[in-house]
Amino acid sequence: MSTIAETAPRGQTRRRMRVDGWRWAGRIFLVFMLLYTALPMIWMLITSIKSGFAAMQFPPQWWPDQPTLASYQKLLDPQNSVGQDFLRFFWNSLFVSTVTTILSVIVAVPAAYAFSRFSFPGRNFLFFAVLLRNMFPAVIFLVPLFILMRVLGLVNTHGSLILTYLTFGLPLAIWLLKGFYDNIPVQLEQAARIDGATRFQAFIMIVMPLSTPGIIATAIYSFIGAWNEYIYAYTFLSKNDQLTLPVGIQRFFSENTTDFPGLMAASFMMSVPVVVLFLVLQRYFVRALTEGAVKH
Amino acid sequence: MTIVTGKAEARRRLQPGRSGVLRKIWEHRADYAYVLPAIAVMLIVIAYPIYYTIELSFFKTPPGLQLRDKTFIGFDNYTTILASHVFWKVTWNTLIWTLGSTLISFVLGFAAALALHRDFIGRGVLRAILIIPWVISAVAASYIWRWIYHSDFGIIGAVLVGLGLADRPPNFIDSVSTVLPSLIVVNIWREFPFAMIMMMAGLQTVPEQLLSAAKVDGASAWQRFWHVTFPHLRNVSTVTILLLAVANFNSFIIPWIMTGGGPSNASHIWITHIYELAFGRQLWGVASAYSVLLFLILMTLGYFYVRALSGNERKEGSA
């Protein structure tokens, strides 16, 4: 201690320099990560405003001579056959994702609440059984589920996707929400019970409003998962008018792989809804992860 | 259901004061109503497929989905798999893919979280940009990167040629030696944001007083990180790494759309290989046997996963 006191000025500078060194390393690293993250997306955007001819040049044009929104116009034009397909895929994705999200919330909220508050026999077993779903890849369920869906008459309907998507949204949804409920004091409900509310009423009137951020996080997660899902949609649906975007886009461009501007424009359009949704609501999502998943 | 409740009722009437499992279940019957929808959905869509996969793995199956014409062959599917050299090739690929993606994603995500922990102008915007790859669809990501890696018009190739580092654009994903690392770069691009979010959340729980106390005691930035911050993040790190490992082990879209497992199986991992066996070559029985082996591996990982999670719970309970 005494030596530090004696050499305080020099020690201070050295320490500050060392700290600055870390800070600079951090900044340089962040610039690197920014480039790694953003450049592919920027290149997607630049390609999407090129003409098909301009995209096929070497060395590539960093910025197109004649930027054009033709690819976007084609995708969004209901008169054009490409536009018709794209818009239909878009609505299909929106429909499937929205219904999945609503059902996920309806199913996950009471389950998470029960796992948080009640101690019924088999509670821990059931909770971890639900979580274990996260462990299993979609592929190994494909054959049996395809057969099951055929039995249920759901092949080639959006119902097959919604039912399937429910199950892989649920584990994280239940987990996130349980974390939220764990942090809401039981006393609030007890107070409501004393005032004459039933347990269910206390749940609806007291707990639900307090867990809104968790519910929003759950909804975002379900929506993004359903929007981006590829493998079940690829297997369960074969009729062109039912395809969702990830599969539709693939069908679209497998015939014409040279239309890279069109493919990039479609990739961009497919990403817009989920990115906007996430950016607007991300603080709920990050908070949910903090409360639910990251306990210390 | 009625039998169970009847028994519990009867026992309660006969032996008041005794607490049997059935009686407990009966007393908590209202609680089950809350979890019933979730459990029902999971049962239909999880339990049945698991059972059916195990069953199929012991049968020789006809092509097409006329699975009623299957014949029992015992463990033949399993021995076929273990004897094929493709199996070992694919297993090796899976190992590299999973470990490489997981560790690098975690390290990059953790480092980004640390760098973003201190407040500065534009931090929120930067964080949002870094998260975007995780949100966009893997299908879109695959197309974007396939275009970036394109062997004639790809931008990375163009930059390498422009800098004089290559004579002509390399075939990143058409060449056996570079395909797997190239795909891992794409996968990390999509996965590191998840590690970043988790670790940022974790960093907020590190007590500020401990860090300043360490600072007063003369600990360097590195020492503070290693002795204070890092031990505090052990649980978050474990959970994050496990979730990443499972997600990577199970990934499908990026290898499938970018290369379809090729060239010559160089980018096939377990999942894409199973898919090809089932839906490409219609070897349902063999694919099911693969899936069962996969279960066993995943259950092992799952054991650690659950242990890490319940470790969290216990800690929280005692705090």
From TrEMBL, chain A:
Its main location: membrane. The chain crosses the membrane at residues 24-46, 89-113, 125-149, 161-181, 202-224, 260-281. It is a multi-pass membrane protein. InterPro entries: BP-dep_ABC_trans_perm, MetI-like, MetI-like_sf. It is found in: Cell membrane. Keywords: Cell membrane, Membrane, Sugar transport, Transmembrane, Transmembrane helix, Transport. CDD domains: TM_PBP2. The keyword Methyltransferase does not apply. It comes from the Bacteria. Residues 90-281 form the ABC transmembrane type-1 domain. Pfam families: BPD_transp_1. Belongs to the binding-protein-dependent transport system permease family. MalFG subfamily. Part of the ABC transporter complex MalEFGK involved in maltose/maltodextrin import. Probably responsible for the translocation of the substrate across the membrane. This is Maltose/maltodextrin transport system permease protein MalG.
From TrEMBL, chain B:
Gene3D superfamilies: MetI-like (1.10.3720.10). It holds the Pfam family BPD_transp_1. It is found in: Cell membrane. It comes from the Bacteria. It is a multi-pass membrane protein. Residues 91-305 form the ABC transmembrane type-1 domain. Its main location: membrane. The keyword Methyltransferase does not apply. The chain crosses the membrane at residues 32-54, 95-116, 128-149, 169-189, 239-258, 283-306. Keywords: Cell membrane, Membrane, Transmembrane, Transmembrane helix, Transport. Belongs to the binding-protein-dependent transport system permease family. This is Sugar ABC transporter permease.
